[in-house]
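Closing statement on the zinc ion sub-project.
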Amino acid sequence: MAAGFPEFRLGNVLATSFTGTLSERRGNAVERIPTPERLVDWLVVNGLAVASCSIAQLELAWELRESIHAAATAAAIQGALPAPAVQVINDCSIRGRAAAVLTPEGNRRWRLGSATCVEDALGVIAADAISIIAGERDGRLALCASPTCQAAFFDTSRSRTRKWCDMNTCGNRQKKARFHANQRKDAKPAQ
Ligand SMILES: [Zn+2]
């Protein structure tokens, strides 16, 4: 891990892990892929290793990320999908030339068209976003209950009642806030 950069938040849904690389969108936003090198690091961690990334490719990644965020947010509140966002997602999906391959152990791996093709990796992410926004996968798109976050996340819990995009960050913070609020209540003299 490169020093000095915010850590990645890793989820088990590729598209929303990707949108999570910009967190605290309604508060003090944290950019977790501020440089091409950090995008390369993120892609490696998510099974989409590329050898290099240019500034233009990083900008394309940000554009895709914000488009997925906009479309997933609209889908989560059953709103109309923003047409420009849909266009970007589709363009990225069409341009990518990645192939799914099966390993001897029975796992799926992505094979990118070439090692320099960030576009291929973005194509995989765009296709993942399409599958959750289209409702093809078992789960529910929802918005994080943290007021400074409100990130769209994909709830795969059995009860479909998950409230936070990430239990370790947003969930914990809310729990702590509630704990302190309760303590203050308990400290009040009995009526
Ligand atoms: Zn959140």
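The beta strands are 22-23, 30-31, 99-102, 108-111, 140-143, 152-155. With this model delivered, the sub-project is considered complete and its resources will be redirected to Aim 3.
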